[in-house]
Write a structure and sequence with these properties.
- The protein is α+β, with helices and mostly antiparallel strands.
- The chain has a single domain, classed as 2-Layer Sandwich (Alpha-Beta Plaits), CATH 3.30.70.
- The chain has 3 helices and 5 strands; from the N terminus they run βαββαβαβ.
- The chain has a 5-stranded antiparallel sheet, with helices on one face.
- The radius of gyration is 13 Å and the shape is globular.
């Protein structure tokens, strides 16, 4: 994991799972919802955007960063987590500016190559 440098105001965490880890992901989803006042996306059991595994997204701010990332590190139970800012450049957000908890996954970044949005 990269040091907790957070020069951006807004972030996403993508928590990845698959069929064998769906229960773990579902439990973490509920725990995050109960512990934090953050915007949770749905548990997506399909591939979306650049993501090459099922996932759910959590939107959070710079002020939530330290507490939320520390919580994820302790409670992710082996799930991979992509953390990226919302800088306005999706390619850089999902690559250069991204950090990971657990094993990094390959993302389909080609969808961002001709479009910075």
């Amino acid at each position: 994991m990269k040091p907790a440098l957070n020069p951006h105001n807004e972030y996403h965490a993508h928590i990845y799972f698959d069929k064998p880890t769906l229960k773990v992901a579902s439990e973490l989803y509920v725990q995050i919802d109960e512990k934090f006042e953050l915007q949770l996306g749905r548990l997506h059991k399909k591939l979306l955007g650049p993501h090459t595994k099922w996932m759910f997204q959590v939107a959070f701010t710079k002020s939530d960063y330290d507490d939320f990332i520390a919580y994820l590190e302790l409670h992710r139970k082996g799930l991979s987590v992509l953390i990226h800012p919302l800088s306005g450049n999706n390619l850089k957000d999902h690559s250069e500016f991204a950090s990971w908890l657990g094993t990094p996954l390959k993302l389909e970044l080609g969808i961002f190559r001709n479009n910075k949005d």
